[in-house]
Structures are given as C-alpha cells and as structure tokens.
Amino acid sequence: MNSWKTLTLCIIAYSFVACSAKKNVTLPNNSSQSISASNSGNKKAPATTTYAKSSSTQQYINKYKQVAIDEMHRTGIPASITLAQAIFESSSGNSDLATSANNHFGIKCTSDWQGPTYHKDDDRPNECFRKYPHAEGSFRDHSEFLKRPRYAGLFKLERTDYQGWANGLKTAGYATNPQYGPKLIEVIERYELYKFDKSASKDPVASSGDRGSLYFEQKPVNEEGKIASKSTQSDNEEVVPAGFYRVKAGDTLYGIAKKFNTKVENIVTWNNLESYSIAVGQLLKISK
C-alpha cells in the first residue's frame, strides 16, 4: 500500500516538474521573439530607408515649412527641395553648423561672402562656413546660392518635379555624395514634403538683391512698430535725429553696422531687439 502511494506521488511530482520545465522553456522563447521583433532581429531594413520618421524632424518641418514656401514663391525653388536639403544637411536643425552658426545648408564661404563666418573641420581642417543671425537668413541665402549659373538648368524644371531637382542638384555638384539625389527624394516622400510644392502663393516677397549680407525680409512698419500698409507710408524724407538711422529697403544689420563703424551686437543691444530681423521704416539707435 505504501509502495502504491509512493508510486502515485512520484508520478504526480514528475508531471508537475515536466509542466514547470515546459513553461520555463516557453517564456524565454517568447521573450526572445519579442525582443527580436522590436529590434528587427536579423531582418535587414529596406534599402530605401535612410531616415526614421521622427517627431523631431516633423517639428522641424512644422517650424520652417512656411519659410520654404515663401522662398518657393519668391525664387521658384520647390519647397520640398529646400526642406529636404535643410533636414539632410542640418540633421533637422541639430548639427553643429545649425546650432552654432544658424547654417542649415552647409554653405561654405565664397569670395563674395561679406557676412560673419564660422570655422570647423570638414573635407579639410578649419574650413570656413557662412554664419547667419537666424535660421531664416540661412534659408534665404540658400535660395540666392542656387541662383548661380551652375544651377540654371534646374529652374527649367516644373516646380513639382522634386525628383528632377534632387538628382539635378547632385549632377550640378551641390554635394559629393553619390546618393545625394536619392536621399533627398527619400526624405521628401517619407514626410510628404511634395505637398508644399502645391501651396498657393501669398503676396510676393520683395528681394533686396543684397547678396553676401545677412538676409531677412524687411516689412514696412509705422511709428508703433506695427506693419504699415502702403497707403500709410510717406514719400517724404524725414529728418532723423543724430545717433539714429531709419531703415531703408535693402538694409541689413550687418550693412548698417559697417556703415556706421559699429558692431551688429551693439545695435541689437541699444535697440533691445529680440532678433536680428529689421523692418523698413524702423528707427534704430546706431551710437551711444
């Protein structure tokens, strides 16, 4: 009788151990499968995937899409191309050039550049890059940069032909990366930037034509600092008090500072400016 009890208990104990062992084997396998799924395991990502659709990039697009659209209507450069280049060149505004020099397109100094500069190692040590007072200035200068003769053929393309523009930029020598065109196309299609190429035009933005300076659109303002309509602007030249200067069309802070032998930072401080943007008709203090 005791032997039967002993045998029965052994069978029950064996069954329990077997079930427990089976569970212990199953859980790690499931856990391993879960980790593999989240890390993609040994599966390779599609060859066309070069950018993850990140929230930081989407925020960058939301912040600068209107600037790109405005530049498109001013110059004819597709907004999708401008945004894709900015995303790619500046890592969505997180690159050293973007954070330290407001340079979102990696544009280097040229013989006609008269603005501030920023030096960093690139293809060669301590290379000279253009520096801007704000990101908008970089976007505007990018448009002006593409007006050079080597890119003239791009402007014969349709504004909605982002593929032609992307590949054309590589062919014209904008970048040395052989995959530059496809990479731009990938960004455009991943974030559907081509939608901005069909945006309706607003009032045309006047160009100052002041190449090589610190770019930013200037809008007429009244004495209270508000945007003035054309009807409120006076054609008469006023007498400006000593030590002050009335901003004219085409003026930049850099140009004004150079004209009056002072520094841009001084003008910003003396006038409590929150940014480096100035407006036509604005009265600036240019000396202590």
From TrEMBL:
<dbReference type="Pfam" id="PF01476">
    <property type="entry name" value="LysM"/>
</dbReference>
<keyword id="KW-0732">Signal</keyword>
<protein>
    <recommendedName>
        <fullName>Peptidoglycan hydrolase</fullName>
    </recommendedName>
</protein>
<dbReference type="InterPro" id="IPR002901">
    <property type="entry name" value="MGlyc_endo_b_GlcNAc-like_dom"/>
</dbReference>
<dbReference type="GO" id="GO:0004040">
    <property type="term" value="F:amidase activity"/>
</dbReference>
<dbReference type="InterPro" id="IPR018392">
    <property type="entry name" value="LysM"/>
</dbReference>
<feature type="domain" description="LysM">
    <location>
        <begin position="243"/>
        <end position="286"/>
    </location>
</feature>
<keyword id="KW-0378">Hydrolase</keyword>
<feature type="signal peptide">
    <location>
        <begin position="1"/>
        <end position="20"/>
    </location>
</feature>
<dbReference type="GO" id="GO:0031640">
    <property type="term" value="P:killing of cells of another organism"/>
</dbReference>
<keyword id="KW-0081">Bacteriolytic enzyme</keyword>
<feature type="compositionally biased region" description="Low complexity">
    <location>
        <begin position="29"/>
        <end position="42"/>
    </location>
</feature>
<dbReference type="InterPro" id="IPR036779">
    <property type="entry name" value="LysM_dom_sf"/>
</dbReference>
<dbReference type="InterPro" id="IPR051056">
    <property type="entry name" value="Glycosyl_Hydrolase_73"/>
</dbReference>
<dbReference type="GO" id="GO:0042742">
    <property type="term" value="P:defense response to bacterium"/>
</dbReference>
<dbReference type="Pfam" id="PF01832">
    <property type="entry name" value="Glucosaminidase"/>
</dbReference>
<keyword id="KW-0929">Antimicrobial</keyword>
<feature type="region of interest" description="Disordered">
    <location>
        <begin position="29"/>
        <end position="52"/>
    </location>
</feature>
